[in-house]
UniProtKB/TrEMBL annotation:
It holds the Pfam family Peptidase_M20. Keywords: Hydrolase. NCBIfam families: hydantase, PRK09290.1-5. This is Zn-dependent hydrolase. CDD domains: M20_bAS. Belongs to the peptidase M20 family. It comes from the Bacteria. One of its GO terms (molecular function) is hydrolase activity. It comes from Cohnella suwonensis.
Length: 416
């Protein structure tokens, strides 16, 4: 049985979670959500706040080419494979204060606790604040972990544009990143990756378990669907003479819900829609909407998407609509390391925390690491299962439990 490291400094962690949450764009006083999009000013302020927090914790701090921030606790053997923890600093729009942030600050807290209580590790320990994971600003996700694990390349985001028409390459450069002379993000020296995260679901709360040990992460497909009809006068155009892009989108979204409801454990969402000309007395000529489809089985996920696209083609043809479907994310379901999962279970038993293995319906940076090094993911409960919302909440004691598990696991991976 390994060492039990107990973290109890809920004040330290709580203060820094609040401090990081303050680094956010706000739409006026009533906006309670956290909005921190890649390469924006609030993103930069947040990364600098975290760099200071890492330095305070006694870590050596560095940036890589795409803006991942890394804090390092040097090992006795600096050449040994690195034990890495961390999560993403960006958020969805008007999201919560814990998604991503908790995994970074919990990682800093764990390294600080280990440094203070166990001294120098055998193998280097690092905590990373990934620059982007959500896909909230540009139509690409996992920009930070994807560049670190080689599934994305820093030159690959050039022509991707945000809603204002700014390209990812221009935003990266304006933030001081994306320069040839900066250290590559790609890592070849990783021995293990462990991500600490809120569950963002309601299972742990319902099952009254203190810790979730993730055994796998669902696969995802994200698309943008553009329908082209004919803008026309809402008053003078008879119903049988319309090519209404909004009505077409509505039929497609209802169809999505119907088909998804029939497939156990498949989830499908339209989260964003843009309408043109978006005027009450004009029949919409163009509608763009998004699809986010997830399942824990690759075969089912790809079958469902192929079938849905065929259905959409039939609907578009019947309605005389032009249609373009652009895929912009495709990840396969990813298992976590069984060995680390069992190790995490032993750690929970040692600390005396109830726990259960579970699948993650949310995507995470951990899914990018699982193919390149032994990877584990630790969840703490989310109150009411709420996340991607200002009402995201986990108690200080539950947050501290997660850090205790992380610190104990990192101890076994880096000290023993
Ligand atoms: O959307 C997700 O699955 C995660 O929050 N990026
Ligand atoms: Mn998220
Ligand atoms: Mn997240
Ligand atoms: Mn994540």
């Amino acid at each position: 049985m390994g060492e039990t490291i107990r973290f109890g400094d809920t004040a330290w962690l709580g203060e820094r979670i609040d401090g990081l949450a303050a680094r956010s764009d706000r739409d006026g006083e009533s906006d309670r959500g956290v909005t921190r999009l890649l390469y924006t000013d609030s993103w930069k302020e947040a990364q600098h706040y975290l760099a200071e927090t890492m330095k305070e914790a006694g870590l050596a701090v560095r940036w890589d080419k795409v803006g991942n921030l890394i804090g390092r606790l040097e090992g006795r053997d600096p050449q040994a494979p690195v034990v890495l923890t961390g999560s993403h600093v960006d958020t969805v729009r008007h999201g919560g204060h814990l998604d991503g942030a908790y995994g970074i600050l919990g990682g800093i807290a764990a390294l600080k606790k280990l440094k203070e209580s166990r001294g120098t590790p055998e193998r280097p320990l690092e905590v990373v604040s990934f620059c982007e994971e959500e896909g909230s600003r540009f139509p690409i996700a996992y920009w930070g972990s994807g560049n670190m694990t080689g599934s994305l390349d820093w030159r690959g985001g050039g022509d991707l544009k945000d809603e204002e028409g700014t390209s990812l390459a221009a935003a990266m450069e304006a933030s001081g990143f994306g320069r040839e002379d900066q250290p590559d993000s790609r890592r070849y020296d990783l021995g293990a990756f462990v991500e600490l995260h809120i569950e963002q679901g309601v299972l742990l709360e319902r099952m009254a378990k203190q810790i979730g040990i993730v055994e796998g992460i669902v696969g995802q497909r994200r698309y943008s669907v553009t329908l082209r009809g004919e803008a026309n006068h809402a008053g003078t155009t008879p119903m049988n003479m319309r090519t209404d892009a909004m009505a077409g989108a509505a039929e497609m979204i209802v169809r999505l819900e119907l088909l998804a409801a029939r497939k156990a454990s498949l989830v499908a969402t339209t989260g964003r829609m843009q309408v043109a000309p978006n005027i009450p007395n004009v029949i919409p000529g163009t509608v763009e909407f998004t699809l986010d489809i997830r399942h824990d089985n690759e075969g089912t996920l790809s079958w469902f998407c192929d079938y849905l696209i065929q259905e959409y083609e039939d609907i578009a043809n019947r309605r005389g609509l032009g249609m373009t479907i652009t895929p912009w994310l495709a990840t396969t379901p990813v298992p976590m390391s069984l060995e680390l999962t069992e190790q995490a279970e032993r750690v929970c038993a040692g600390i005396g925390l109830s726990n259960r293995r579970m699948f993650s319906g949310a995507g995470h940076d951990a899914q990018l690491f699982a193919p390149v090094c032994p990877t584990a993911m630790i969840f703490v409960p989310s109150r009411g299962g709420i996340s991607h919302s200002p009402d995201e909440y986990t108690s200080p004691e539950q947050l501290a439990d997660g850090v205790s598990v992380l610190a104990s696991l990192l101890y076994e991976l880096a000290y023993e």
